[in-house]
Amino acid sequence: MPILYGIILPFRGPKSAKLYQRIWTPQGSPLLVTSQKIEAQLSVHYKNDPMILSCMRYGSPSIEMKLEELTDANCNEIICLPMFPQFSKTTTGSIMAKLKKIKNEYGTAPEIKVLKDFSSDSRYIDALFTHLSKYYEKDSNEHLVLSFHGIPVSYVGRGDKYQLYCQETIALLIQRFQLNNDQYTITFQSRFGPDPWLKPYTDKKIEELSKSNIKVAVFCPGFLVDCLETLDEMGNEARMIYEKSRGPSFRVIPCLNDSPELINAMIEIFEDKDKFETI
To answer: Which of 77, 148, 208, 268 could form a disulfide with 222 if both were Cys (CB 3.0 to 4.6 A apart)?
Structure first.
Protein backbone atom coordinates (compact mmCIF):
# COMPACT_ATOMS: atom_id res chain seq x y z
CA MET A 1 0.00 0.00 0.00
CA PRO A 2 2.22 2.84 -1.22
CA ILE A 3 1.94 6.23 0.40
CA LEU A 4 2.18 9.49 -1.47
CA TYR A 5 2.38 12.75 0.40
CA GLY A 6 2.16 16.04 -1.45
CA ILE A 7 3.89 19.34 -0.88
CA ILE A 8 2.90 22.40 -2.85
CA LEU A 9 5.80 24.53 -3.90
CA PRO A 10 4.49 28.11 -4.03
CA PHE A 11 4.73 29.54 -7.52
CA ARG A 12 4.99 33.26 -8.04
CA GLY A 13 6.64 33.59 -11.42
CA PRO A 14 10.10 34.73 -12.63
CA LYS A 15 10.45 37.60 -10.15
CA SER A 16 10.80 35.02 -7.37
CA ALA A 17 14.14 33.86 -8.78
CA LYS A 18 16.14 36.46 -6.85
CA LEU A 19 14.25 35.65 -3.67
CA TYR A 20 15.05 31.95 -3.99
CA GLN A 21 18.74 32.81 -4.42
CA ARG A 22 18.72 34.34 -0.93
CA ILE A 23 17.64 31.06 0.70
CA TRP A 24 19.26 28.52 -1.64
CA THR A 25 21.58 26.00 -0.01
CA PRO A 26 24.45 23.96 -1.49
CA GLN A 27 22.02 21.01 -1.49
CA GLY A 28 19.32 23.00 -3.32
CA SER A 29 15.85 24.24 -2.37
CA PRO A 30 15.30 24.06 1.42
CA LEU A 31 11.72 22.91 0.84
CA LEU A 32 12.77 20.09 -1.48
CA VAL A 33 15.76 19.06 0.63
CA THR A 34 13.69 18.88 3.83
CA SER A 35 10.85 17.02 2.12
CA GLN A 36 13.39 14.43 0.95
CA LYS A 37 14.63 14.07 4.54
CA ILE A 38 11.06 13.48 5.70
CA GLU A 39 10.57 10.91 2.94
CA ALA A 40 13.78 9.14 3.98
CA GLN A 41 12.81 8.98 7.67
CA LEU A 42 9.35 7.65 6.89
CA SER A 43 10.85 5.07 4.50
CA VAL A 44 13.16 3.83 7.26
CA HIS A 45 10.24 3.59 9.69
CA TYR A 46 8.09 1.60 7.26
CA LYS A 47 11.08 -0.34 5.84
CA ASN A 48 9.88 0.70 2.36
CA ASP A 49 6.63 -1.23 2.77
CA PRO A 50 4.57 0.70 1.98
CA MET A 51 6.52 2.92 -0.40
CA ILE A 52 6.94 6.55 0.64
CA LEU A 53 7.15 9.16 -2.10
CA SER A 54 7.08 12.96 -1.95
CA CYS A 55 6.09 15.29 -4.74
CA MET A 56 5.19 18.89 -5.54
CA ARG A 57 1.89 20.32 -6.74
CA TYR A 58 3.91 22.74 -8.88
CA GLY A 59 7.48 21.91 -9.81
CA SER A 60 9.48 18.72 -9.68
CA PRO A 61 9.07 15.94 -8.74
CA SER A 62 5.51 16.33 -9.97
CA ILE A 63 2.37 14.53 -8.84
CA GLU A 64 2.07 12.95 -12.30
CA MET A 65 5.60 11.57 -12.09
CA LYS A 66 5.07 9.94 -8.70
CA LEU A 67 1.62 8.57 -9.51
CA GLU A 68 3.07 6.92 -12.59
CA GLU A 69 5.84 5.42 -10.45
CA LEU A 70 3.28 4.03 -8.01
CA THR A 71 1.10 2.67 -10.80
CA ASP A 72 4.10 0.94 -12.37
CA ALA A 73 4.76 -0.63 -8.95
CA ASN A 74 1.28 -2.22 -9.16
CA CYS A 75 0.03 -0.55 -6.00
CA ASN A 76 -3.67 -0.93 -5.24
CA GLU A 77 -4.07 2.04 -2.91
CA ILE A 78 -2.47 5.48 -2.61
CA ILE A 79 -2.75 7.53 0.57
CA CYS A 80 -2.00 11.21 0.10
CA LEU A 81 -1.15 13.57 2.95
CA PRO A 82 -0.98 17.15 1.62
CA MET A 83 1.40 19.22 3.72
CA PHE A 84 -1.28 21.81 4.40
CA PRO A 85 -2.96 21.29 7.79
CA GLN A 86 -5.63 23.94 7.15
CA PHE A 87 -7.79 23.10 4.14
CA SER A 88 -8.24 25.70 1.43
CA LYS A 89 -9.48 25.31 -2.10
CA THR A 90 -6.26 27.03 -3.15
CA THR A 91 -3.99 24.37 -1.64
CA THR A 92 -5.34 20.95 -0.65
CA GLY A 93 -8.39 21.56 -2.83
CA SER A 94 -6.06 22.09 -5.77
CA ILE A 95 -4.19 18.88 -4.98
CA MET A 96 -7.43 16.89 -4.79
CA ALA A 97 -8.59 18.32 -8.12
CA LYS A 98 -5.26 17.42 -9.72
CA LEU A 99 -5.33 13.87 -8.36
CA LYS A 100 -8.89 13.38 -9.57
CA LYS A 101 -8.00 14.67 -13.02
CA ILE A 102 -5.03 12.32 -13.31
CA LYS A 103 -7.05 9.38 -12.03
CA ASN A 104 -9.75 10.03 -14.62
CA GLU A 105 -7.12 10.16 -17.35
CA TYR A 106 -5.63 6.85 -16.21
CA GLY A 107 -9.04 5.19 -16.23
CA THR A 108 -8.06 2.21 -14.08
CA ALA A 109 -5.86 3.99 -11.54
CA PRO A 110 -5.34 2.70 -7.98
CA GLU A 111 -7.73 3.93 -5.30
CA ILE A 112 -6.59 7.32 -4.01
CA LYS A 113 -7.35 8.59 -0.51
CA VAL A 114 -6.57 12.11 0.72
CA LEU A 115 -6.58 13.73 4.13
CA LYS A 116 -8.54 16.88 3.46
CA ASP A 117 -7.81 18.75 6.69
CA PHE A 118 -5.99 18.13 9.96
CA SER A 119 -6.02 21.64 11.41
CA SER A 120 -7.46 20.46 14.73
CA ASP A 121 -5.96 16.97 14.82
CA SER A 122 -4.50 16.33 18.27
CA ARG A 123 -1.34 14.79 16.79
CA TYR A 124 -0.64 17.95 14.78
CA ILE A 125 -1.42 20.22 17.74
CA ASP A 126 0.82 18.12 20.01
CA ALA A 127 3.65 18.41 17.47
CA LEU A 128 3.25 22.18 17.28
CA PHE A 129 3.15 22.55 21.05
CA THR A 130 6.18 20.35 21.72
CA HIS A 131 8.20 22.01 18.96
CA LEU A 132 7.24 25.58 19.87
CA SER A 133 7.97 24.91 23.54
CA LYS A 134 11.62 24.43 22.60
CA TYR A 135 11.83 27.94 21.17
CA TYR A 136 9.32 30.05 23.06
CA GLU A 137 8.57 30.58 26.75
CA LYS A 138 5.14 31.87 27.61
CA ASP A 139 6.56 33.98 30.44
CA SER A 140 8.92 35.82 28.10
CA ASN A 141 8.27 39.39 27.06
CA GLU A 142 8.22 38.48 23.36
CA HIS A 143 5.01 38.94 21.39
CA LEU A 144 4.26 35.75 19.45
CA VAL A 145 3.18 36.45 15.87
CA LEU A 146 1.46 33.37 14.44
CA SER A 147 1.56 33.92 10.70
CA PHE A 148 -0.40 31.92 8.11
CA HIS A 149 -0.36 32.19 4.35
CA GLY A 150 -3.16 34.52 3.34
CA ILE A 151 -5.87 34.16 0.73
CA PRO A 152 -8.11 36.82 -0.86
CA VAL A 153 -11.14 37.81 1.21
CA SER A 154 -13.32 37.04 -1.81
CA TYR A 155 -12.43 33.34 -1.49
CA VAL A 156 -13.83 33.30 2.03
CA GLY A 157 -16.96 34.99 0.72
CA ARG A 158 -17.34 32.13 -1.73
CA GLY A 159 -17.25 29.53 1.02
CA ASP A 160 -13.56 28.77 1.62
CA LYS A 161 -13.26 27.96 5.36
CA TYR A 162 -9.50 28.37 5.51
CA GLN A 163 -9.61 31.29 7.96
CA LEU A 164 -11.80 29.29 10.33
CA TYR A 165 -9.40 26.34 10.22
CA CYS A 166 -6.46 28.66 11.03
CA GLN A 167 -8.36 30.07 14.00
CA GLU A 168 -9.20 26.57 15.25
CA THR A 169 -5.53 25.56 15.13
CA ILE A 170 -4.44 28.59 17.13
CA ALA A 171 -7.26 28.24 19.66
CA LEU A 172 -6.08 24.72 20.47
CA LEU A 173 -2.41 25.69 20.52
CA ILE A 174 -2.97 28.72 22.73
CA GLN A 175 -5.08 26.61 25.08
CA ARG A 176 -2.07 24.34 25.54
CA PHE A 177 0.26 27.28 26.13
CA GLN A 178 -2.26 29.18 28.25
CA LEU A 179 -1.31 32.50 26.68
CA ASN A 180 -3.23 35.71 27.26
CA ASN A 181 -4.75 37.55 24.31
CA ASP A 182 -2.13 40.31 24.52
CA GLN A 183 0.74 37.82 24.18
CA TYR A 184 0.04 36.71 20.61
CA THR A 185 -1.53 37.74 17.30
CA ILE A 186 -2.80 35.66 14.37
CA THR A 187 -1.72 37.27 11.09
CA PHE A 188 -1.72 36.50 7.35
CA GLN A 189 1.18 36.95 4.95
CA SER A 190 2.17 36.63 1.28
CA ARG A 191 -0.53 38.86 -0.20
CA PHE A 192 -0.19 40.25 -3.70
CA GLY A 193 -2.39 42.04 -6.17
CA PRO A 194 -4.93 44.83 -5.60
CA ASP A 195 -7.69 42.85 -3.90
CA PRO A 196 -8.03 42.70 -0.09
CA TRP A 197 -6.64 39.60 1.63
CA LEU A 198 -7.24 38.18 5.09
CA LYS A 199 -6.19 40.54 7.87
CA PRO A 200 -4.34 41.47 9.95
CA TYR A 201 -1.41 41.55 7.53
CA THR A 202 1.78 40.09 9.01
CA ASP A 203 4.08 42.84 7.74
CA LYS A 204 1.83 45.61 9.08
CA LYS A 205 1.56 43.96 12.49
CA ILE A 206 5.31 43.49 12.71
CA GLU A 207 5.87 47.13 11.86
CA GLU A 208 3.33 48.15 14.52
CA LEU A 209 5.02 46.02 17.18
CA SER A 210 8.43 47.39 16.27
CA LYS A 211 7.23 50.99 16.58
CA SER A 212 5.78 50.07 19.99
CA ASN A 213 9.23 48.78 21.07
CA ILE A 214 7.96 45.22 21.54
CA LYS A 215 10.11 42.12 21.06
CA VAL A 216 8.78 39.73 18.40
CA ALA A 217 8.99 35.99 17.77
CA VAL A 218 7.36 34.79 14.54
CA PHE A 219 6.10 31.24 14.05
CA CYS A 220 4.29 29.93 10.96
CA PRO A 221 2.20 26.91 12.06
CA GLY A 222 0.54 26.47 8.67
CA PHE A 223 3.90 25.79 7.00
CA LEU A 224 5.15 22.37 8.05
CA VAL A 225 8.44 22.87 6.21
CA ASP A 226 10.55 26.01 5.92
CA CYS A 227 10.32 27.55 2.47
CA LEU A 228 10.44 30.89 0.67
CA GLU A 229 7.55 32.26 2.74
CA THR A 230 9.24 31.53 6.06
CA LEU A 231 12.96 31.79 5.32
CA ASP A 232 12.85 34.87 3.10
CA GLU A 233 9.52 36.62 3.56
CA MET A 234 9.75 36.34 7.35
CA GLY A 235 13.48 35.83 7.85
CA ASN A 236 14.57 38.64 5.53
CA GLU A 237 11.73 40.91 4.44
CA ALA A 238 9.82 41.01 7.74
CA ARG A 239 13.07 41.40 9.65
CA MET A 240 13.99 44.44 7.53
CA ILE A 241 10.57 45.99 8.20
CA TYR A 242 11.02 45.42 11.93
CA GLU A 243 14.58 46.75 12.06
CA LYS A 244 13.70 49.79 9.97
CA SER A 245 11.38 50.89 12.78
CA ARG A 246 14.16 50.14 15.31
CA GLY A 247 12.40 47.45 17.33
CA PRO A 248 14.44 45.80 20.11
CA SER A 249 14.43 42.11 19.07
CA PHE A 250 13.09 40.03 16.16
CA ARG A 251 13.44 36.33 15.44
CA VAL A 252 11.77 33.63 13.39
CA ILE A 253 11.12 30.21 14.92
CA PRO A 254 11.83 27.27 12.55
CA CYS A 255 8.97 25.22 11.14
CA LEU A 256 8.50 21.61 12.20
CA ASN A 257 10.62 20.45 9.25
CA ASP A 258 11.99 16.91 9.70
CA SER A 259 11.75 17.04 13.49
CA PRO A 260 10.75 13.96 15.51
CA GLU A 261 7.54 15.82 16.39
CA LEU A 262 6.41 16.01 12.76
CA ILE A 263 7.64 12.54 11.78
CA ASN A 264 5.82 10.89 14.68
CA ALA A 265 2.66 12.89 14.00
CA MET A 266 2.70 11.90 10.32
CA ILE A 267 3.13 8.22 11.17
CA GLU A 268 0.16 8.29 13.53
CA ILE A 269 -1.98 10.26 11.08
CA PHE A 270 -1.14 7.89 8.21
CA GLU A 271 -2.32 4.95 10.28
CA ASP A 272 -5.66 6.61 11.07
CA LYS A 273 -7.10 5.59 7.70
CA ASP A 274 -10.71 6.41 8.53
CA LYS A 275 -9.96 10.12 8.26
CA PHE A 276 -8.82 9.86 4.64
CA GLU A 277 -11.38 10.52 1.88
CA THR A 278 -11.54 8.52 -1.33
CA ILE A 279 -11.52 10.69 -4.44
So the answer is: 148
